[in-house]
Specification:
Keywords: ATP-binding, Nucleotide-binding
Strand order of the largest sheet: 2-3-4-1-5
Family: Belongs to the AAA ATPase family. RarA/MGS1/WRNIP1 subfamily.
CATH topology of the largest domain: Rossmann fold
Strand content: 5-15%
GO molecular function: ATP binding; ATP hydrolysis activity; DNA binding; enzyme activator activity; single-stranded DNA helicase activity
Oligomer: single chain
Protein name: Replication-associated recombination protein A
Radius of gyration: 31 Å
Mean pLDDT: 85
Organism: Sporosarcina thermotolerans
Structural class: alpha/beta
C-alpha cells in the first residue's frame, strides 16, 4: 500500500519521462543534450502551478545522478542554506532545487550566491511569478537559463494518465481498472493542462469507485462530479491573474466577444472582483474612448452594480459591459494624446504659459501683463458654440499637435470639428 500521493509517486525519474515541455527539454534541444552529457546549468523555471517545474528538477537530478537537495524559500532559513553549502564542499557539486524562489531573502542570497557563481552549487529555482518582476537580479544574473513552462496539452495528459494506470511499481498497475478512452480523455480535458491535478483526480476517482469481480469499475457520473470540484488554476495575486487580465483586455480590444467572456469568467472564478472591475473601467476609456463615449458611463454603472451585488450576481452586469465594449467602435486617441504630452514634458519641451491665459483674479494682474484674453463664448461660430483664434500653448511648442483623431464611431464627428478648427487657424 502506497502512502505517498499518486502525483508524487509518478514524478519522472529522468528527463526522458517528462510529459510535454518539448520546447524546453525535447531531444532536439540544447538543454536535453547538456543534461544528457552531465552538464546542468543554473536555471529558473517559470510557470503556473502543476505544470511540471518540480518534476523537471527531479528528472534532471535523476538523469545526472548529482546530489540533489530540495528547499522551499518560504520556510527555509540561513541554516538550511549553509547545509547546502556544506554538502557542496563535501561532494564537489550539488543541485539545489529552490521552490518559490521569489521569496528568497537577502541573507540567503548572500550565503548562497558565491557558490552558485563558482559552480559548486547548481541552482534550479521555480516560481509561479514572472521572474523578471519578482526574482532578484542577483539571482537572475547567475542563471544561464530562464525557462517558461507551458500547460500540458490533452495528449500529454492522456499519456501521463495511461502511464499511471499501467505502472505496477509507482502507479495503479497492480489493480485492474476498467476505464474507457473517452473517460481518460474527459479527465485530460477537465484539468486544464495541470499534470498534478490530473493524477490527483485519477487517484480520487479510483479510490471512490466500486470493485466488482476483482476489477475497479469507473463510472462517468463520478468523473463529472469530481472534475466539478477541481476549480481553476491561478490566484488573484499570481502572474496568471495578470495574464488573464491582459488576455481579457486584448480580446475586448480585438472585438472577440467569446474570448472576452471566457477570460471574464475565468477571472471571476479566481474571486478578485475589484481588480476585474477596475480593469474593465480602464478599458472603457483606453480602448473604446471617444469612438463610443457613452460606454464609459455604462461600464462605470456596471462595475458599481457588480461591487454592490457581489458574486455570483456580479457576473451579469460585468458580462453586459464586456459585450458592449467588444462590439463598440474603438479609439485610443485620447490616451495616446495625453501620453504624447507627458513625453513632451519629460523631454523638456515646455515653455511659459502665455500671459493672456494667466490668472487675473487679483489686483495688479494687469500691471504684470496678464491681459488680452478673448472670451470664446462671446464669439459664436455656427452651431458649435463660441470660438476665437488665440494662442493657448507656450511659444516654444505653439504648433505642436498631440491629438490624432481616429475616424471611428462618434469620434468621426469630433475629428471633423477638430479639422475645421485647424483650417480656421490656418486662414487667420
Amino acid at each position: 500500500m502506497h502512502n505517498e500521493p499518486l502525483a508524487f509517486r509518478m514524478r519522472p525519474k529522468t528527463i526522458d519521462e517528462i510529459a510535454g515541455q518539448q520546447h524546453i527539454i525535447g531531444k532536439d534541444t540544447a538543454l536535453y543534450r547538456m543534461i544528457s552529457k552531465g552538464h546542468v546549468p543554473s536555471m529558473l523555471l517559470y510557470g503556473e502551478p502543476g505544470i511540471g517545474k518540480t518534476s523537471l528538477a527531479f528528472a534532471i537530478a535523476g538523469t545526472t545522478q548529482l546530489p540533489f537537495i530540495s528547499l522551499n524559500a518560504t520556510v527555509s532559513g540561513k541554516k538550511e542554506v549553509e547545509d547546502v553549502v556544506a554538502e557542496a564542499r563535501i561532494t564537489g557539486k550539488v543541485i539545489l532545487f529552490l521552490d518559490e524562489i521569489h521569496r528568497f531573502n537577502k541573507l540567503q542570497q548572500d550565503t548562497l550566491l558565491p557558490h552558485v557563481e563558482k559552480g559548486s552549487i547548481v541552482l534550479i529555482g521555480a516560481t509561479t511569478e514572472n521572474p523578471f518582476h519578482s526574482v532578484n537580479p542577483a539571482i537572475r544574473s547567475r542563471c544561464g537559463e530562464i525557462l517558461q513552462l507551458k500547460r500540458l496539452d490533452s495528449k500529454d495528459v492522456i499519456k501521463l494518465i495511461e502511464r499511471a494506470l499501467h505502472d505496477k511499481e509507482r502507479g495503479l498497475g497492480k489493480t485492474p481498472i476498467e476505464m474507457t478512452d473517452d473517460q481518460i480523455e474527459k479527465i485530460s480535458e477537465g484539468v486544464n493542462g495541470d499534470a498534478r491535478k490530473a493524477l490527483t483526480l485519477l487517484e480520487s476517482i479510483v479510490s471512490a469507485s466500486d470493485e466488482e469481480d476483482g476489477k475497479i469499475l469507473i463510472e462517468d457520473w463520478l468523473i463529472d462530479n469530481l472534475i466539478g470540484r477541481i476549480g481553476l488554476v491561478g490566484d488573484k495575486k499570481g502572474s496568471h491573474h495578470y495574464n488573464l487580465l491582459s488576455a481579457l483586455q486584448k480580446s475586448v480590444r480585438g472585438s472577440d466577444v467569446d474570448a472576452a467572456i471566457f477570460y471574464l469568467a475565468n477571472l471571476l472564478e479566481t474571486g478578485d472582483l475589484i481588480a476585474v472591475s477596475r480593469r474593465l473601467l480602464v478599458m472603457a476609456y483606453e480602448d473604446v474612448g471617444l469612438a463610443a463615449p457613452q460606454v464609459g458611463p455604462h461600464v462605470l454603472a456596471a462595475t458599481e452594480a457588480a461591487v454592490r451585488l457581489g458574486m455570483p450576481e456580479a457576473r451579469i452586469p460585468l458580462a453586459n459591459a464586456v459585450i458592449e465594449m467588444c462590439l463598440a467602435s474603438k479609439s485610443n486617441s485620447a490616451y495616446k494624446a495625453v501620453d504624447a504630452a507627458i513625453r513632451a514634458i519629460n523631454d523638456g519641451k515646455t515653455g511659459d504659459i502665455p500671459l493672456h491665459l494667466r490668472d487675473t483674479h487679483y489686483a495688479g494682474a494687469a500691471e504684470l501683463g496678464h491681459e488680452g484674453y478673448q472670451y470664446p463664448h462671446d464669439s459664436p461660430i455656427g452651431s458649435f458654440g463660441g470660438w476665437v483664434d488665440q494662442q493657448y500653448l507656450p511659444d516654444k511648442i505653439k504648433d505642436t499637435e498631440f491629438y490624432t483623431p481616429v475616424i471611428a464611431g462618434e469620434e468621426r464627428k469630433l475629428a471633423g470639428i477638430y479639422q475645421r478648427l485647424k483650417e480656421f487657424r490656418k486662414k487667420k
